[in-house]
Amino acid sequence: MTLKVYGLKKCSTCQKALAWLDERKKPYSFTDVKEEPVTKQQVAQWSKAVGGWEKLINRAGYTWRGLPASETRDLTEARAVALAVANPSLIRRPLIEYRDGSVTVGFSDKVRRAIA
Asked: Is the pTM of this model over 0.90?
């Protein structure tokens, strides 16, 4: 199973996840979302797959806190997707897309067990 991993090269959680995958010889492709921008369609699919924008968007990070309240207030699914496309570092990392179309965000023990 080849995994598609999306994140940021400089993100420590992404680095840990990629090292973990390498150690276990799990095949994957990695996309840095700042170097290869994501599309509205991709983000909308990911949002649906994880159960909504609230689970996809990192609202605790610097990027979120740096946005004007006018952009983050009263978000709808469509506005959240557009915000994530414009600011890809808002997407929880790493985002892993599986062959069956399912998606996980973060790198918890639960995610590790799903991959192992």
From this structure: yes
We find that the CATH architecture of domain 3-115 is: 3-Layer(aba) Sandwich (3.40)
Task: Give the pLDDT means over successive 10-residue stretches in the chain (116 positions).
Answer: 92 97 96 96 97 96 94 95 97 95 95 90
Q: Taking every pair of C-alpha atoms in the chain, what is the biggest distance, in angstroms?
A: 45
Domain boundary assignment for the chain: 3-115
